[in-house]
Amino acid sequence: NALRKCASAQKSVVIVSPRPHFLYTPLLASSSVGTITLRSACEPLRALVESAASKATSATFVRADAREIDVHNKKVYATTDSDGMGLELSYDKLVIAVGAQPNTFGIPGVQEHGLFLKEAEDSAKLHAKLLSNLEKAAALSHQGNKYATEIDRLLKVVVVGGGPTGVELCAELADFKNHDVVKRYGTDISDRIQIILVEAMPRILMPFDESLANVAKEHLVSKGVEVRTGCGVTYVEGQDVTMQPSTPRTATAEQKAEAASKAKSEEVGALVWVAGIGARPLVKKLAKQLGQTDMRGLKVDETLKVEGTNDVYAIGDCAL
């Protein structure tokens, strides 16, 4: 959208991105269960640039990962890939629209063992994991009750994060279970699928009106989703997930100890982490360089100009 608005006569626009497509992230939940193809959530950046080029003096796409910004000399330093081959790009005006990345809040094991839903690759991984678990469970079911425990583990999906993404994903998973799985694997498999939505806050969809959140919860429960609120994940190791009652930041040592004493571990087939977002390294580095104390994003004024800079703007999830 910023590209379309910026492209006009007498302007040369350069788009720098590590991925060759624009990703419409709200569609990732649907693509992860096959409701739509992943291609439907992506639009080639070169096609967008080609459209913008008809309006601007020139428009160029550079596939690279921006690593550092020098606001004093108006330069962006980027690398083409992991081998560190560097690019130096100059600008007159800079728009930072890098979005955000999943925030694991430092919980041990989440980064290593969890699945996410932020990039196209994440959706593909989740889709592959779901199908792999279904196929294995279906195969094991031919041995009667011999592998009952393993089948139940394979078919248990835990989604952490009761925001819009987590709620939508659980709804998609429930529809997938009640329609596609029933049709292709039968009720013997579909009836054993467990979808668990875990939210640390007292209710799901906390930023929204409580009545709306209640409607969403009732809908999920009616579809067979188990909703656990006031519950947090504290540790992940392989297929084991440990949860306990969540505590407020002001909790006393005694309250924390009581919550820890109620911790329980359970084996799951898939853990999907959609519990929040955090700033990307580029944003944190620039925020620190500018003397910001809030590392959640870049502070901007009413015109979206980054505070403490000239001709640098931030939009989307990377802006505060």
UniProtKB/TrEMBL annotation:
Belongs to the NADH dehydrogenase family. It catalyses: a quinone + NADH + H(+) = a quinol + NAD(+); a ubiquinone + NADH + H(+) = a ubiquinol + NAD(+). The lineage of its organism: Eukaryota, Sar, Stramenopiles, Ochrophyta, Bacillariophyta. Keywords: FAD, Flavoprotein, NAD, Oxidoreductase. It comes from Skeletonema marinoi. This is NADH:ubiquinone reductase (non-electrogenic). One of its GO terms (cellular component) is mitochondrion. Gene3D superfamilies: 3.50.50.100. Residues 2-319 form the FAD/NAD(P)-binding domain. Its EC number is 1.6.5.9. GO terms for molecular function: NADH dehydrogenase (quinone) (non-electrogenic) activity. It is an enzyme of class 1 (oxidoreductase). It holds the Pfam family Pyr_redox_2.
